[in-house]
Structures are given as C-alpha cells and as structure tokens.
Amino acid sequence: MFDALSDRLESAWKKLRGQDKISDSNIQDALREVRRALLEADVNLQVVKNFISEVETKAQGADVIAGVRPDQQFIKIVHDELVQVMGEENVPLAEVEGKTTVVLMAGLQGTGKTTATAKLALHLRKLDRNCLLVATDVYRPAAIDQLITLGKQIDIPVFEMGRDADPVEIARQGVEQAKAEGINTVIVDTAGRLQIDQDMMAELANIKSTIEPDETLLVVDAMTGQEAASLTHTFHEQIGITGAILTKMDGDSRGGAALSVRQISGAPIKFIGVGEKVEALQPFYPDRMASRILGMGDVLTLVEKAQEEIDIADAEKMQEKMLSAKFDFTDFLKQLRLMKNMGSLGGIMKLIPGMGKLSDDQLKQGETQLKRCESMINSMTKQERKDPELLASSPSRRRRIASGSGYKESDVSKLVADFQKMRAMMQQMGQGNFPGMPGMGGMGNPLAAGGNRRTAPGWRGYPGGTPVKKKKKEKKKKGFGTL
Length: 483
Hints:
- This protein is flat.
- Helix 1 packs antiparallel against helix 2 (24-40) and helix 2 packs antiparallel against helix 3 (45-60).
- Helix 9 links the parallel strand 5 and strand 6.
- It is of the alpha/beta class.
- It has 20 helices and 8 strands.
- The chain starts with a helix and ends in a 53-residue tail after the last helix.
- Strands 3-2-4-1-5-6-7-8 form an 8-stranded mixed sheet, with helices on both faces.
- It is 52% helix and 8% strand.
C-alpha cells in the first residue's frame, strides 16, 4: 500500500536536505517531485494542483523552528495537507439510538461489495453491535449463496428470499424483520453491474426510498485509482451516499483513490479493505494514513490489531515468563501464531515506524525464517519445548528434529542457541540490567556481550563515547575508558 508513492516522496525530501532554510528557490525542486509522485500515484489532476498550491503557500509562509531541518519542516507541511485532503478525521458509522440502524451497500460488480458487507458486520460485532445481513442481489449467480456462506463463517444471520423475489421487497421485509427482532444494525447487500446503468440506479433508488437507510455506503475498488473518485462522485449525485469503503487497498501500491475520493465526491472514506480475510477491514483515519504514506508507520493501528488478538491476562503471564527466563518454545510458537493472526509480516512491519523501508526480499526472508522456526518447533516433543536445555545438551535430539522438520542439524542448533541468548537477555532485563547500557551489570559492557569494541563508550572517535586521554607513559593503551 502506497509503496510507489512513499518512494517518490522520499526523493522530494532529499531536495531539501543540506539546506539552511526553506526558500522560494529551493522548494521548487521538492514541489516538482511531490507533484510527480502524486500524478504517478494516479491522484486526480485537480486534486494535485490544489495540493501543490496549498503546500507551496504554507511552506513559504512557515516560521523557521529552531532545531528543525527544512526537509523535516516540509514533511510536516505535506503530512498536514495529506490529512486535510483525505478528510481530517475519522467519520464513524452511524448508530441510531434505541432503533435499528439501516445500512445500504452499493457498488459495481467486482469491487468486493458482498465480502465488504460481511466484513462490516464482523467489525460491528466487535463493537458489540448485533447485525442481520440482507441478500438482495438476485442477478449475479451464487451472490446470495456467497453471503450465506460468509454469514455462517462469522456467525451472523442472513435474510434471503431466493432469486425469484423482487429486490425491493427483499430489502423491505429484511429491514422489518430486523426491527421486529430488535437487531442493532441491518446491512442490505445490493446488486452491482459491470458499469453504471439506469436499471441499476433506478433499483437502488427504489430500495433506498423504501428502507430509508441511515447510511448509504459505496464500495469502490481502490486499484481503479482516480476512477474511484469519479465513480463515487457519480453515485453521490444520482443516489446520495454518506460514505465510501475502499477495497483492495493492500493490492494498490499507488494510493491515488484514497487521496482523491473525499475531494472529488465530497463523501468521506469510512473503511478500507486491506486483505481477503473477513477480518481485513479497518476504519479509515486520515492522519494515520498520511503517516503510512510518508513512511512513518502507524502505531495506533498496530496496537488496535494487537488488542483484538491478545488477552490482557495472557499477556501479563507471558511477560512474567519472559522476564524470569521461563519463556519456552511453546510460548514462542504461540507468539508466532498470534502474529500470523494479525496479518502478514510485511503488513505488520509497515505499521512500525522506520520499518516501512524494508525490501520485499528482506520481508520474504523474514517470513521464511519464521516458517522454518515453526516447522522445527512442531517437530519437538512437549518436554523439549518446555525445556530447551535438553536440546542444547543432546545432539541426537537435534538430529531427530532436523530430520522430522526437513532441515539441517546446524539449523536446529542455531535456533536453540539464538533462543537461549534471547532468554538470557530477557532475564537480564527483568533484573534491571539492560544490555548495551554502561553501569547496568555485566551485560552492560558491549565487549562482554560480544559487541564491537569501536562502539564502546570511550572508544576514540565514537560519537557517542567520551574520548579518554592517553597517558604519556602507557603507549599501549589506545583509548578504552572504564566501562
């Protein structure tokens, strides 16, 4: 997501590095790069023009802040303008107090509308809102069956009347049933077409006037770029929508749709689809998305994803085990599977500040390494998982695990050795001794931990260390201080 745009913007910041301040002359090259980046990301031309004009005005009028480099100041201005373009703040889904909230889903075929309907229902259930899905797409083969299957998968009921019923009547009866049963939210999935036509618009208009929805959401394929904004604008004019859901955001490296929809259509983006799994739907936060675009990560989304998967009591027990060196391979395997539930390694890394620049090769290597670890741990007995020392002292056990997992004995030996080092480091931290920090016990000495002596505090020429004066008579001593 946004990979190409992020890379392009990086070259814009470079234009200002080494400059003393932002000026009319040095900002033009940076603005040219930003303009090119946005156009290549398939952002609407008018949006690009307005964006560049606003950034230029704000950059030239920006007060110089002591200690802040021009490129950093420029990044802040671009970030704020990105937030402004995408809508400033999250617009939550409506909820009518004391009544059934009615949500109408619209969109063309192939945008993932039916899947997005199920994803939205699951998202609302996490917010303690019970739902009913209504299947009105009687035209696309297996559309009703697809929604029923998704409903069973997430344990949410689906109202349907078969393919011979009138879609408007299905919607009306579905909403009535939801109200009669006291359902919090009813989500009506409608039919799409390969392109906008009068029959589809007329049917949508009839359904809307019949059920009087509180939300009318347009599901748009983000990979269509600025066409997504034009589509949203057309639906907004003819039907009247309250928001959009951008699907397939994980497959779009450009990101033009996210930057164009709000400005062109006037309708806010409320959710984004970031994967094929039914859990892969996220509320849209413009400030978080701007941070992702600029390669700053998205810690808040990462925390929210973790909170969905992690039980607080389990987390406290795990922390206690880690700090007391009781963390074993069973716990490690549990953590690996927990991370899998949160998404791909690449997706998680890009939410962490500073990790967005990892190459695809590096991420693939990381994924491969995690799979190797999991395979080897799966070949261990319960006793070996609980007591890694058994493996450290038994070559025959390591050979058996290597044979069972399809790897070499040296791979198993490395896994065990790395695991023991990790446990030792965690134990030191639990005792208040932080590796690499002077004065914090034996692990505080970088040399004792096998570190590079040139990175030790006191090494002559190391920027973080204090140079130690050399005594005249002791010529052999080359600059080590007291650690």
